UniProtKB/TrEMBL annotation:
Pfam families: PMP22_Claudin. This is Claudin. The keyword Membrane applies. Signal peptide: none annotated. The chain crosses the membrane at residues 79-97, 118-142, 162-183. It comes from Spizaetus tyrannus (black hawk-eagle). It is a multi-pass membrane protein. Keywords: Cell junction, Cell membrane, Membrane, Tight junction, Transmembrane, Transmembrane helix. Its main location: other. The gene is Cldn22_1. Claudins function as major constituents of the tight junction complexes that regulate the permeability of epithelia. One of its GO terms (cellular component) is bicellular tight junction. It is found in: Cell junction, Tight junction; Cell membrane.
């Protein structure tokens, strides 16, 4: 059972982590971190991301303008840029380390201890990457909620709302943490030694032949 269970869980963990890393990179560059609907002009929807602000028109057109200065951004967007880059880098490094630690990879087949350490470090990097992806998304969501319910802002002033990128970022962080957990769980499972793989089938065949000889009249 361990011969099938351990590699399958490792493969599931690396695929879930890969999905989380792709979603994290997508979140970094999506301009829909915040959405703004203007009541005076319902044909336009304003969006804001980490790099640019865009206006989407009902006809299907979309115009974007990059931010002129990094220092002119709000604090949550400045820190979010750094954390998302940090998350993407750690996720990529985790993919490399955990990829070389998979049991299905023939490289280093007899160095099980080193492969176990690579899986451990890869899983920890996925955890950190997932947390650093969740933190900026949650921070921007928190500041958006505070601004939305701020009583000092007049009611006629449009309020920013959650954008689609926030939900993609939360999903990315969850996938990275889940993938890292699956990889670390395989470390605690029964180890697969190459000798047991090579001799498991011959031993079963010998037992079957021995039973057949005993049952013959």
């Amino acid at each position: 059972m361990a011969l099938v269970y351990r590699p399958m869980m490792q493969l599931s963990g690396i695929l879930v982590s890969l999905l989380g890393w792709v979603l994290s990179c997508l979140t970094t560059y999506l301009p829909q971190w915040k959405n703004l609907n203007l009541e005076l002009n319902e044909l336009e929807i304003w969006t804001m991301g980490l790099w640019q602000a865009c206006v989407v028109q009902e006809e299907g057109g979309m115009q974007c303008k990059d931010f002129d200065s990094f220092l002119a951004l709000p604090p949550e967007l400045r820190i979010s840029r750094i954390l998302m880059f940090f998350s993407n880098g750690l996720g990529f490094l985790g993919l490399l380390l955990s990829g070389f630690g998979l049991d299905c990879l023939k490289i280093g087949e007899r160095q099980q201890e080193q492969k176990k350490r690579l899986l451990l470090f890869g899983g920890l990097l996925f955890w950190i990457s997932g947390i650093t992806a969740i933190v900026p998304v949650s921070w921007v969501a928190h500041s958006t909620v505070q601004e939305f319910w701020d009583e000092n802002i007049p009611d006629i002033v449009p309020r920013w709302d959650f954008g689609e990128a926030l939900f993609v970022g939360w999903l990315a962080g969850f996938c990275l943490v889940l993938g890292g957990s699956l990889l670390n769980c395989t470390i605690c499972s029964t180890e697969v030694h190459p000798s047991s793989v090579h001799y498991a089938v011959p031993e079963q065949q010998d037992q079957c032949q021995h039973v057949e000889t005993e049952t013959r009249p």
